[in-house]
Amino acid sequence: MSTLWRHARLATLAGEQGWGLVEDGALWVEHGQLRWVGPDAALPPGLTPETEHDLAGALVTPGLIDPHTHLVYGGDRAAEFEQRLQGATYEEIARAGGGIRSTVSATRAASDDELFRTAALRARALMAEGVTTLEIKSGYGLTEADEARCLATARRLGRELPLGVRTTSLGAHALPPEYAGRADAYIDAACGWLAGQQAAGLVDAVDAFCDTIGFTPAQTRRIFEAAGRLGLPIKLHAEQLSDQGGAALAARHGALSCDHLEHLSQAGVAAMRAAGTVAVLLPGAYYFLRETRLPPVQALREAGVPIAIATDHNPGSSPTLSLLLMLNMACTLFRLTPEEAWRGVTQHAARALGLRDRGCLAPGLRADFAVWQAEHPRDLAYRFGHGRCIRSVCGGVERTPP
Ligand code: NIG
Ligand code: FE
Question: Which residue CA neighbors atom 9 of ligand 1 most closely?
Answer without folding.
Answer: 316
